[in-house]
Write a structure and sequence with these properties.
Length: about 475
């Protein structure tokens, strides 16, 4: 009762039940397409009706309820050195966890916003940035290295990520063969991955209502290794999901329930982190966009996962924007603040521009400040007697000041908001010939990236990883 803490709620309990009923009807009556025969056999073995000619699977409510009862309600994530980092899905921590990434094809230079193909050196730079900035809890695969053969680019990126940060990794790999090889590489470097999990594989179905072969096979690989799995779907209202927010929520929720069912059919009790990446669809530009409704859907999805007792991973607000500009700043603020005030567990994909095609370090540096301020806002304040300190108010009295009050001296540093930009009077700003805020952000980002250094075991990890990748390259070449 002593804490004043702002929260944001979208759905009432009866509305969550209503969404659940709509989703069950979709799974039972419409069904979903399941491409892999082995996956269809798993569903059939659990009592789901399978129409083989259509690759269609119909999941009854009792199977969904069984799976929800099996899936763990929380998961603990460590760093690669074995230290606990954070929990998802339980009451020990309700802090939204943010990550840098994800799988961009291009790199946007902080000096001038010029865009060029993403390289392996950019993987290293993004990883060091994620490792350094305090607001970020994890690193997601930041880009696809265009300067390497496609056969081994994922392996080199995985090695480079783990050598340049100790933070947990969200691993996104499109080719299932490279998915296995990347997990083998990490186990070769660090031993068993499931004991203190720090690697979180990422898979996604195809909206609407398709469980692709790669999705189910990568799910099996991750679950069999005992790794927590992020299962995210991505829907664009009016394109791959209904244009109505309610229809989008029901459809995406049904897809997530199907993913939970499949994961538990592979192994009951397998940890799964579920959530949606809802977006709008711009029919003129033919791109996805974040809208107020898509932000609401992100929060509603988080509440549905909390309703089911599942850890959650949602969207990160990095689609709209041509760089660290006004339109992206507004989207970041809306996403990060509402995520922190709602029930969003993870928002692992910060740093993209141009519909997540380009990775912009300036966006990551700016978002670090936004996240810290959003957390401060959502953390609220205390009304405990020691914090109100009426005896100090009484001592100082009318027309006094609190500059030298004991509580001020004790807490003034923690009361300051994180700020990229120095405080300046109008006179100081004019004397410096009117510097711009985005110019300061660019210079700060460049200076920061020049100074960043990798973890102390960087060279050892790279050298050991290369011994595994080089023979693989030779085999691929032959």
């Amino acid at each position: 009762m002593e804490m004043v803490q702002p929260t944001l709620t979208v759905l009432r309990p009866e509305q969550m039940d209503q969404v659940h009923r709509f989703s069950l009807a979709i799974l039972e009556d419409t069904g979903l397409r399941v491409d892999d025969p082995d996956a269809r056999r798993r569903f059939a073995g659990a009592g789901c009706r399978v129409a083989d000619g259509e690759r269609r699977v119909y999941i009854p409510a009792e199977v969904v309820n069984w799976a929800l009862a099996q899936a763990p309600g929380s998961v603990s994530i460590h760093d690669r050195q074995g230290a606990p980092r954070f929990h998802l899905g339980d009451t020990r921590s309700n802090i939204t966890r943010f990550g840098v990434g994800v799988t961009n094809l291009y790199y946007q230079e902080p000096a001038d916003d010029q865009v060029r193909p993403f390289t392996l050196a950019d993987v290293a730079a993004a990883s060091r940035l994620a490792d350094h900035l305090p607001a970020f809890d994890l690193l997601s695969t930041p880009g696809i290295a265009q300067d390497l053969p496609t056969e081994t680019a994922d392996l080199w990126a995985t090695l480079t990520m783990t050598a340049n940060t100790v933070k947990p990794l969200v691993l996104l790999i499109s080719d299932e063969r490279m998915f296995t090889a990347a997990l083998d590489l990490l186990e070769f470097l660090h031993g068993e991955l499931s004991r203190k999990p720090w690697v979180i594989p990422y898979v996604n179905p195809i909206s609407p209502l398709v469980l692709g072969r790669e999705t189910t096979r990568k799910t099996v690989m991750a679950v069999e290794r005992g790794l927590p799995l992020i299962y995210n779907n991505y829907g664009m209202s009016g394109a791959t999901t209904p244009i109505s927010p309610g229809g989008t929520l029901a459809l995406l929720n049904a897809e997530l329930l199907a993913g939970v069912v499949f994961s538990q059919l592979v192994k009951a009790g397998a940890p799964i982190i579920a959530g949606s990446l809802p977006a709008g669809f711009d029919m003129q530009a033919m791109t996805s966009v974040y809208t107020p409704h898509s932000m609401l859907l992100n929060l509603a999805c988080a509440e549905m996962m909390a309703h089911y007792g599942l850890p959650h991973s949602g969207t990160s607000g990095c689609v709209n924007g041509w760089g660290a500009d006004l339109q992206l700043a507004g989207t970041l603020w809306m996403n990060h603040l509402t995520a922190c005030m709602g029930k969003v567990g993870m928002a692992p994909f910060v740093g993209g521009t141009f519909d997540s095609l380009a990775f912009a370090p300036t966006v990551v540096v700016y978002a670090d400040q936004v996240i810290r301020q959003a957390r401060q806002f959502s953390g609220g304040f205390s009304l405990a007697a020691t914090d109100v300190a009426t005896e100090q108010i009484d001592t100082i009295g009318p027309a006094g000041n609190f500059l030298m009050a004991p509580l001020t001296l004790e807490r003034f540093r923690q009361a300051q908001s994180a700020d990229l930009w120095p405080s300046q009077t109008l006179e100081q700003w004019a004397a410096e010939e009117g510097p711009s805020a985005d110019g300061h952000l660019r210079r700060h980002t460049i200076d920061l990236m020049v100074e960043l250094r990798p973890p102390s075991d960087h060279d050892e990890i790279m050298a050991r990883g290369e011994t595994l990748i080089h023979p693989y390259e030779t085999a691929q070449g032959s």
